[in-house]
Design goal:
Length: 541
Amino acid sequence: MPATPHRRLATVLFFDMVGSTVLASELGDERWREFLALFWRTVRRQLKRDGAREQDQAGDGCLAVFAQPAQALRTAAALIVVAQGLGVDIRCGVHTGECEELDRKVQGVAVHIGARVMALAGPAEVLATATVRDLTTGSDVRFEHVGNATLKGIDGDWVLFRATIVGDAPLPPPLSAAEALSRRAGLELRPRGPRRSRTALIAAAALGALAMAVITPVLTLGANHSAARQRGSLPISLVRIDPVNDKVTGVVRDRYVGPSGLVSDNGTLWEFERVERGKRMVVFERDARTGRVRRRINLSPEGIYFQAGFGSVWVLREDNFVAKVDRIDGLSGRRVTINLPPTVSVSPALSALSVGAGRVWVLDDAGDVTAIDPATNRPSVPMPTGVVADWLQAFGPYVWLTATFPQRELVRFDPKTRRTRRYPLPEHPWVLIPSGQEFWLMDATDRTVSLFDPKSGRTDAPIGLAGSPSPGGGLASASGQLWIAAGKQVDWIHNQNWQGSVRMPTGVCADDVAVDTPTNTVWVSTGRFPDTAYYSQHGGC
């Protein structure tokens, strides 16, 4: 039976970014996507802090719903300050009215009025209807009269007011072009490359159907590993390295080659890959000894991240603004869908899924973490961390987060006490991976890795890499040795005292790397995007 809508009084706040088209052209596609992701992480953190309910978000605009008009005005003022910290202005429109609500979404004339009011606002401006002004009489919000306006599609003239003071602070003026440019220049936007499944995989990864397929790879041994495609030969999809001798000992040839991510889990390799020019996504279960494909899992383009652990494959996806995790049993292929709390919203720009500390962890845009109990498949209530985080890694009893805004830091979050401890970092903490009781941090732009000791809070001097690492990951650590997929080679560091590299076969580009401890094997997936601007600028494949 379909749900029945009901009417209630609500305050709607509409806002969007001013000059976004020009800014997108200025930054270019990759940096614009990264900037937009940072913008939404920062905005959603503020919305969640203020108790707003984000209803619709498209591009650089959003509708948020509040119970009280004064709170909507305070949030609008805070969002203007937050956005200016990123070097952009937003405009806001607020209206209170009776709305029709269905499936937690408000609709009706009042919503349209809020949108039309926002369209009349200027940069760093909060416009409100007379209804909002009247309802907040006696509060800490001050207005000035703007005048009467005709709202498109709405009958009559509407009296509009501009919020000038919220709390004890006047609203800031719009940024000058020079000031906006200066603030954006101070942001640390990571160059965008394909993300890895080590902690998360960007790209669509929602499980559609589980299909068995007979795929016969060709494992080639010996010294000659040329990847030049001879007529009728299959391309190289995996490269096997002996971690003792640091040499290539074999390659796997099959027709499944493309930008991919790799994870090892107790004798099994899980490889996430884009096939058919990115139209479809699949996960291959491979034998960690031979690289042979055991099973193929077809994925739909809804999802965002992929991870393996607790004998299962975990896929984080968002379906109609509802975050879900699909769990696929590694033996039976049985699928269970876990609905996350409605306040959880995830972004492809985050590494938002991690397996460890006895749980599966999800990081949302607001910096909250949700724990899924693998024994019951039940998610916890989202736990605020107070961090605008980029990377999530569960390790030991803690959840670790990296952040680059407003400052570079590594944050330790204790799920039991809900307390955090912050460690300032000298490098850009873009990728985080545990190594024994310490962490490796990678800065892909400067091509360095640094070892961090959680006990002392000390970060060792950065170690330069010879190759071109991916900004999205491509690291693996085992037995004191770190492996980095770095374009035409795989760099390695052993106990911080020795380092070297293993050259890939001719024409092969290292995309991701995984170490399988039971078989003592290092596997490298191939198929990195060869023509992205980042790799061209940094001498990659």
